[in-house]
Amino acid sequence: MFMYQPLFYFMAFLGQMLSIMSSSWLLVWLMMELSLLTIMPVMVNYGKYLTLSCEVTMKYFIIQSMSSMWIMLGGYMLWDLTTGPGVFMLVFLIGLMFKLGLFPGHFWVIQVVSGLKKLPLIFILSILKLAPLFLMVTLNISVNIDLFSVMGVMSLVVGGLLGIIQSTVRGVLGSSSISHSGWMIITIMMDTFIPYFLAYVVTLTMFLLVWGKNNYLASMMMISFSGLPPFLLFYPKVLVFSMLVENSMWAIIVCLVMMSVVSLYFYLKSSYSLVLIRILN
């Protein structure tokens, strides 16, 4: 199994790349399923945490399978049968919400993250979200902007509130993922999605690389998730705020500022914990 892990990771990444390059929604769906099926074998930790990793892998498979079913049903009715937007558009969106861990399909994220190794964690929280997010970019043209705003803001609120009660680094990463997924929906509305997504992937990857090896640096990377200057996520967030100001979306701006303060609190708390663990050891 271990010798085939690079192949599984490559196929999961390839599935996402082929998905965003496909011109047919059905091919997009098939490539997302390829990524799902090839990431599952590497989610299992063949060590002392075998039982936990098997449990979270099964949870992830069930949730993702349900969301794939809804995406297939909604996509078939919308594009193959040319049914007008309405209930089937909502079904399609619900499937994407569960794929991405957006509110109200966020409940699986923290539970799954708690039992994963570092590399599968990077894939689950970032790379495997690429194709569903590009589908969201496509839907942004035809979906009411108020619906996108509610999805993004509610994910920010839920992610921030869940982050406050987390006591583990993985729990904080899961809450952060929900919150940043909300940010990504806002960036899709403002056409600034790609810079934000790239900054998030780089920040997440750098944190997981140094976590457990250099906790001082890991604590700094944890704070970088908040988007404080001069960290990487600060610049795409400034771009988002400038676009929101140009479009006079003041209600969304107020919500983003308030939840950014809440998120900063639990990032600082987790960062302090990392430094304290380093000092005590």
Structure description:
The protein has helices at residues 5-21, 25-43, 50-80, 87-100, 108-113, 118-125, 130-139, 145-164, 169-189, 193-210, 215-224, 234-246, 250-280. 78% of the residues lie in helices and 0% in strands. The chain has one domain (2-280). It has 13 helices and no strands. The radius of gyration is 18 Å and the shape is globular. Helix 9 packs antiparallel against helix 10 (193-210). With 281 residues, the protein is mainly alpha-helical. The longest helix is centred in the first third of the chain and has 31 residues, at 50-80.
Short description:
The chain crosses the membrane at residues 7-28, 60-79, 85-109, 121-141, 147-165, 185-210, 216-235, 247-268. With 281 residues, the chain is mainly alpha-helical.
Low-confidence stretches: none
Give a count of the beta strands, DSSP E runs of length 2 or more.
0
Number of helices: 13
Determine Rg (CA atoms, Å): 18 Å
User: Helices and strands: which structural class?
Assistant: mainly alpha
Beta-strand share of residues: under 5%
In total, the number of domains comes to 1
Net shape: globular
Order of helices and strands: HHHHHHHHHHHHH
Mean pLDDT: 86
Largest beta sheet, briefly?
none
Helix content: over 70%
End-to-end distance, in Å?
A: 35 Å
